[in-house]
Amino acid sequence: MLAYTLSNLELRGIIESGFLPHRCHCTIMDNTMTVEVIDPLTARVELFASGIRLDRLDTSRALCELISELRAEVSLGQSNDRQALAS
Asked: To which H or E segment does residue 52 belong?
Protein backbone atom coordinates (compact mmCIF):
# COMPACT_ATOMS: atom_id res chain seq x y z
CA MET A 1 0.00 0.00 0.00
CA LEU A 2 1.33 3.43 -0.91
CA ALA A 3 1.85 5.82 2.00
CA TYR A 4 1.43 9.57 1.60
CA THR A 5 1.97 12.66 3.67
CA LEU A 6 -0.70 15.24 4.36
CA SER A 7 -0.11 18.58 5.94
CA ASN A 8 -1.57 19.06 9.41
CA LEU A 9 -4.15 21.43 7.93
CA GLU A 10 -5.27 18.85 5.34
CA LEU A 11 -5.42 16.10 7.95
CA ARG A 12 -7.49 18.26 10.31
CA GLY A 13 -9.85 19.24 7.47
CA ILE A 14 -10.48 15.62 6.47
CA ILE A 15 -11.15 14.45 10.00
CA GLU A 16 -13.23 17.46 11.05
CA SER A 17 -15.46 17.18 7.96
CA GLY A 18 -15.96 13.48 8.71
CA PHE A 19 -18.09 14.36 11.74
CA LEU A 20 -20.54 16.79 10.15
CA PRO A 21 -23.14 17.88 11.28
CA HIS A 22 -21.34 17.65 14.64
CA ARG A 23 -18.63 20.19 15.34
CA CYS A 24 -15.20 18.66 15.51
CA HIS A 25 -11.93 20.20 16.62
CA CYS A 26 -8.60 18.50 15.98
CA THR A 27 -5.45 19.59 17.73
CA ILE A 28 -2.08 18.33 16.56
CA MET A 29 0.93 18.50 18.81
CA ASP A 30 4.11 16.43 19.09
CA ASN A 31 3.12 13.88 16.45
CA THR A 32 -0.19 13.11 18.16
CA MET A 33 -3.69 14.37 17.65
CA THR A 34 -6.64 15.10 19.92
CA VAL A 35 -10.16 14.95 18.51
CA GLU A 36 -13.07 16.64 20.25
CA VAL A 37 -16.58 16.09 18.87
CA ILE A 38 -19.31 18.47 20.03
CA ASP A 39 -23.05 18.27 19.53
CA PRO A 40 -24.02 21.46 17.65
CA LEU A 41 -27.41 21.78 19.36
CA THR A 42 -26.45 21.20 22.98
CA ALA A 43 -22.74 22.14 22.88
CA ARG A 44 -22.15 18.92 24.82
CA VAL A 45 -18.82 17.20 24.25
CA GLU A 46 -19.76 13.87 22.69
CA LEU A 47 -16.21 12.51 22.44
CA PHE A 48 -12.74 13.51 23.54
CA ALA A 49 -10.03 11.25 22.14
CA SER A 50 -6.36 11.99 22.67
CA GLY A 51 -3.05 10.31 21.93
CA ILE A 52 -3.89 9.46 18.32
CA ARG A 53 -0.53 8.83 16.69
CA LEU A 54 -0.09 10.61 13.36
CA ASP A 55 2.30 7.99 12.03
CA ARG A 56 -0.62 5.53 12.00
CA LEU A 57 -2.63 7.82 9.69
CA ASP A 58 -0.49 7.30 6.61
CA THR A 59 -3.15 5.94 4.22
CA SER A 60 -6.66 6.87 3.24
CA ARG A 61 -7.83 3.57 4.70
CA ALA A 62 -6.29 4.43 8.09
CA LEU A 63 -8.06 7.81 8.06
CA CYS A 64 -11.40 6.18 7.18
CA GLU A 65 -10.96 3.57 9.92
CA LEU A 66 -10.19 6.24 12.52
CA ILE A 67 -13.20 8.35 11.55
CA SER A 68 -15.46 5.27 11.49
CA GLU A 69 -14.25 4.11 14.90
CA LEU A 70 -14.73 7.51 16.49
CA ARG A 71 -18.13 8.05 14.82
CA ALA A 72 -19.26 4.68 16.18
CA GLU A 73 -18.23 5.75 19.67
CA VAL A 74 -20.19 8.99 19.30
CA SER A 75 -23.25 7.04 18.10
CA LEU A 76 -23.03 4.62 21.00
CA GLY A 77 -22.55 7.42 23.50
CA GLN A 78 -19.36 5.88 24.84
CA SER A 79 -16.96 7.57 27.22
CA ASN A 80 -16.30 11.26 26.64
CA ASP A 81 -12.64 10.92 27.60
CA ARG A 82 -10.40 8.19 26.23
CA GLN A 83 -7.01 7.46 24.82
CA ALA A 84 -7.43 6.48 21.16
CA LEU A 85 -4.97 4.52 19.06
CA ALA A 86 -2.17 5.40 21.41
CA SER A 87 -0.32 2.14 20.86
From this structure: strand 45-53
